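> agent: user asked for a holo structure of the chain below bound to flavin mononucleotide. Plan: (1) validate sequence alphabet, (2) canonicalize SMILES, (3) run complex prediction with ligand conditioning, (4) return tokens. Step 1... ok. Step 2... ok. Step 3 dispatched.
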Amino acid sequence: MEEFLSLAKARYSCRRLNGGAIPAETLEKILEAGRCAPTAHNNQPVKIWVIESPEALAEVKAAAQFPFVQAADCVLAVGALPSEAWVRPFDGKNFADVDGAIVATQMMLAIHDLGLATTWVGHFDADKLKAAFPEMIPYDMIALFPLGWPAEEAKPSRLHEDRKPAEESVARL
Ligand SMILES: Cc1cc2nc3c(=O)[nH]c(=O)nc-3n(C[C@H](O)[C@H](O)[C@H](O)COP(=O)(O)O)c2cc1C
């Protein structure tokens, strides 16, 4: 547990990234962390795209213009398919986004644990991405993860320590 908590606290959004090829066995471990994630009703409506060809990278970089995305030589895109996700019968809530977020979070923690760095990118032009990759059209595109190594000057932003106190975020009934 101590190990898990220290990983959860040490992980931060790294916005100073050095690119470079990601070793195949490292990438496999990240993808495995996503593959073993739980999903509602085990429907597994989540897809991970590994974007590493120069042509595909150029399309992703046009849709997400952060410098740390531009620096990456490999980007993971995570999408969730509402038509395959579990729907709660009481109120019709579709769990696709929730499932996608769990897969994405497990990969994000694995990336840090493996000594790489990333930032969860939600601020991207999903329509532009879908125009470049039509297979993404039916998916809710949840996250991009540029993969790389933390630059020497990389450090957590001030927001990393900025969390609501437990008294505010936890309710005891
Ligand atoms: C769903 C989601 C979307 C995010 N989108 C972006 C983004 O587009 N660009 C960015 O710089 N950071 C993005 N972040 C990172 C958050 O700003 C960051 O997690 C938060 O400020 C806390 O900092 P920390 O990750 O260093 O602990 C996103 C995080 C999440 C969970």
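> agent: step 4 complete. Summary for user: Helices lie at 2-10, 24-35, 54-63, 67-70, 96-113, 126-132, 166-169. The chain has a mean pLDDT of 97.
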